[in-house]
Design a protein that fits this description.
There is one protein chain. 43% of the residues lie in helices and 14% in strands. The protein is of the alpha/beta class. Helix 2 (46-53) packs across helix 3 (57-69) and helix 6 (138-147) packs across helix 14 (333-345). The longest helix is centred in the last third of the chain and has 23 residues, at 347-369.
Length: 458
C-alpha cells in the first residue's frame, strides 16, 4: 500500500466483542496474509486512521503498539510506519502451552529468591557444587518419597529416583526398559513429549482403542499380542489432551490385563494433585509392575523442572539411574535442592492448592464463555474440544493464529493419524483472568463462523 489513501485492508475489520484496537491488529494481519498489504507498504498516519475509523487516537496508538510487538509493522522516525517483511512473532495470547497459572497469594519470584538464599545459607557448598549423578542423593530421594506418598504411600528411597523434569525421567525409562525398534502401547491421542521421545530414540508407538472410560482392556490385549509390546504408557488422571480421568474400575481391569500380558505400566502423573480426590494410582493398584513419574512443573511452576519416579524395586531404579547418567547426568542440585526443601516444608503443597484454586477459577470462566462440547474438569489446566464434519483443527489453528491466538490441534497428540480430531486449549499461560477471557471470546468468534475465513459453525 504505497498510496496512503488506499485503506482497502480495513475491509478485514470485523465486528464483534473484541476491543477495537485488537480488531485493527487482526485486520493488519489479515491484510498481510492475503497479500493486500505487502512488506514495505506504508500505513497512513495514526491521526488519519483514527479519523477514518471514528475512534480516538489512543486506540490506534495502542493497536500500532501491539502490531509492532507482533512484528507486523515497524516505524522509522521521519518516514512513517511500514509493513515488515518478516513473519508475525508470538501470538497475543497463548492457549497452547500447558503450564500452571500463577497462584493467587504467592509471589513465586520472591519465594524463589528467598528460598535459594536460605538454601545457600543452610547447605554446604560441597553438596550444591558437586556431582551426585544417577537417581539422586538420599535427601532428594527421601523428599521424592514424601511427594509421591499420595499416589502410593511412603516408599523406601531405594525405589525412588529424581530427575530434571518428567521428560528426562521418561527418556531414562524408555532407554532402560525397551530397545530400539520396540513398540510402546499408549492412547491414540497422547502426550506430545512421548511422541517426540519415541521418534528420537527409535521406538515405535501403537495407539490402543478406547471408550469413554479410557483404553479398553480387550483392545489392549489385542495390541500387545500383535506388536509384542512390553511397555504401556498411561496418563490416566486429567489426561492430556482429553482431560479424562480413568475411573477406578477401569484402572483395575487394565492392571489385571497388564499382569496377564506381562506389561510394565509407565504412569505419567503430572496432574493428580490438582484434584481434591483422585482415583487410586496404578502405583498403588499394581506397584509390582508400575513405574510412576510425577513432575512439579505442572502443579507449581515450570521453573521447578524437578520430577520424582517410583519403580517396583531397587534394581529397576538402578537401570533407570544408569540411563539418567548417560543422558542428563543428574538433576541440577540447586533447583532440585529448592524443590525438595519446598516439599519438606509443606510450601509445595500450599502452592499446589493455590494453583488448583486458580485453575478452578479459569475453568469457570471457560464454562461461561465457550460453547457446549468442551471436555474439562474443574481443576484441569486444559480443555479438549472434539471436532467432526468439515471443520478441521488444523484450519482452526491457522485461523486462531491470524487472530493472535495459539491453540493445539489434534495432530500434535495423534499416534494414529486421523483417528480423532479436536483441539486442546490450555488455560494457564494467560497472564490474568481478564486476558484469558479476551482470548476465549476471540476463539468463540472463530468457532461461530465469525472469522475472516468464514469457517463453518461447529
Amino acid at each position: 500500500m504505497n498510496d496512503e489513501s488506499d485503506l482497502g485492508w480495513l475491509s478485514c475489520l470485523e465486528e464483534g466483542p473484541r476491543p477495537i484496537y485488537l480488531r485493527i491488529v487482526d485486520a493488519l494481519a489479515a491484510g498481510r496474509s492475503s497479500g493486500r498489504l505487502q512488506p514495505g507498504d506504508r500505513l497512513p498516519p495514526q491521526r488519519e486512521l483514527a479519523r477514518v475509523l471514528g475512534v480516538d487516537l489512543t486506540t490506534v496508538t495502542r493497536a500500532f503498539t501491539e502490531a509492532r510487538r507482533r512484528n507486523l509493522i515497524d516505524a522509522t522516525a521521519g518516514r512513517g510506519t511500514f509493513i515488515t517483511p518478516g513473519e508475525p512473532e508470538e501470538p497475543i495470547l497463548d492457549l497452547s502451552m500447558n503450564i500452571p497459572p500463577a497462584p493467587v497469594g504467592f509471589s513465586l519470584p520472591a519465594l524463589i529468591r528467598s528460598g535459594i538464599d536460605a538454601l545457600l545459607k543452610r547447605s554446604s557448598a560441597e553438596a550444591l557444587l558437586s556431582y551426585h549423578p544417577g537417581p539422586g542423593s538420599p535427601a532428594e530421594r527421601a523428599a521424592g518419597s514424601s511427594w509421591l506418598a499420595a499416589a502410593g504411600g511412603r516408599l523406601p528411597t531405594e525405589r525412588i529416583a529424581v530427575g530434571s523434569g518428567a521428560q528426562a525421567l521418561l527418556a531414562a525409562v524408555l532407554l532402560s526398559q525397551t530397545g530400539e525398534g520396540d513398540t510402546i502401547l499408549t492412547d491414540a491421542l497422547t502426550y506430545p513429549g512421548l511422541i517426540a521421545l519415541a521418534e528420537a530414540t527409535g521406538r515405535k508407538l501403537a495407539g490402543v482403542g478406547r471408550d469413554d472410560d479410557g483404553i479398553r482392556p480387550d483392545d489392549l490385549e489385542e495390541a500387545a499380542r500383535r506388536h509384542g509390546a512390553r511397555l504401556l504408557y498411561l496418563n490416566p488422571t486429567l489426561h492430556n489432551p482429553t482431560t479424562l480421568t480413568v475411573p477406578e474400575g477401569r484402572r483395575r481391569e487394565l492392571a489385571r490385563m497388564a499382569g496377564k500380558l506381562g506389561l510394565t505400566i509407565v504412569e505419567d502423573d503430572p496432574y493428580s494433585l490438582l484434584l481434591t480426590s483422585a482415583p487410586p494410582a496404578f502405583l498403588s493398584i499394581t506397584p509390582e509392575r508400575t513405574i510412576h513419574v510425577a513432575t512439579l512443573a505442572k502443579c507449581i511452576s515450570p521453573f521447578l523442572r524437578t520430577a520424582f519416579l517410583a519403580a517396583p524395586d531397587g534394581q529397576t531404579v538402578e537401570r533407570i539411574g544408569a540411563a539418567i547418567r548417560g543422558t542428563t547426568m543428574m538433576a541440577p542440585p540447586l533447583m532440585t535442592g529448592l524443590a525438595c526443601e519446598w516439599v519438606r516444608s509443606g510450601l509445595a503443597g500450599e502452592i499446589t492448592a493455590a494453583v488448583r484454586a486458580e485453575a478452578e477459577a479459569r475453568q469457570a470462566i471457560a464454562r461461561k464463555i465457550l460453547p457446549a462440547g468442551f471436555a474439562s474438569a474443574d481443576s484441569s489446566l486444559h480443555l479438549w474440544y472434539p471436532l467432526s464434519g468439515r471443520l478441521r483443527s488444523s484450519e482452526l489453528g491457522d485461523a486462531a493464529r491470524r487472530r493472535g491466538l495459539a491453540i493445539s490441534p489434534a495432530a500434535e497428540f495423534s499416534v494414529v493419524p486421523g483417528v480423532a480430531d479436536g483441539l486442546r486449549l490450555a488455560l494457564g499461560a494467560a497472564s490474568s483472568r481478564e486476558r484469558l477471557e479476551e482470548g476465549l471470546r476471540g476463539l468463540v468468534s472463530i468457532l461461530g463462523g465469525g472469522s475472516r475465513q468464514s469457517l463453518p459453525a461447529v
